[in-house]
Specification:
Blueprint lengths: L1 H15 L1 H8 L11 E12 L2 E6 L2 E2 L3 E5 L2 E11 L4 E7 L2 E9 L5 E8 L2 E7 L6 E15 L10 E3 L2 E15 L2 E18 L4 E6 L2 E12 L1 H5 L10
Amino acid sequence: MKRGFEAMRRIGIGALGALALVAVAAPADAGDYSGDTLVRVQGAVVVPDSSASVSAGGTHIPGADAEVSTEVIPSLTITHFFTKNVAAELFCCFAKFNAEGKGAINGADLGDFWAFPPILTLQYHFDPIAGFKPYVGAGVQYIHYFDGGNSDLGGKIHLDDSWGFALQGGVDMEIGHGWYLNADIKKVWLDTDASWKNTGVAAKVDVDPLIISAGIGYRFNLADILRGGSAPVPLK
C-alpha cells in the first residue's frame, strides 16, 4: 500500500511538470490568447462539507457522525476551446484525506484514504475586459477511492466510487505571451457508502466538497506544439 501511495505521489508531481514541458517545447511565439488549448498548474484547497449516517450491524447509531479532513493539494487542468467562448475543462489530481468520528463517536480515527477525483466541466468564457477573462461552468465529478488505513473501529476503511454534479466559476488574468494567473472555485454535490472491513460498521456519507484553486496557466495552439509552428486558425 505504501508503495502504491508513493507511486501516486510521483504521478502527481510528474503531471504538474506538464505545463513546464509544454512551455519549453513550444516555439518562442507559441503563446496565444486565442489558442485552442489552456493548461494550468494550481494549488487547491479541498473543503468537504461532510456528514454521515452511521450504523453497526444494520442498526443506526443515534448521534454518530463523521467528518472528512480539509486538504491542500497540487492540481492540473487541461482546457480545450471549441470556440472563443465555449470550452471543456478536465481537472485532476490525487488527494489523501482522513475521516474522523463526530457526535456519539467523537474523536474516533475512522481511517485515511486516497482519492482520484477528476472533474469534467463544460464552460462559457466571457470576452476579456482589461485582460481579465471570467468564466462559468457545469459538469460532473467521478471519484475513485483507494482502500485506506486502519481505524479505531478495528478495520480498514473502504469507500464506494461515486459520481457528483459540479458547478464552477473563475477568472484568468493575462500576464503576457499566452500566460495567465488564475483563480477558480468549484462546488460538488456527491455522496458515497463507507464500510470498515470485518466490523459490521457502515455509513452513508455526504462529501459535498468546495474546491478553491489558484495558479498559473499557459494558452497556445496545440498544432504549434505538434507541428512545430503553423498559422493558427482563429476561433470563431
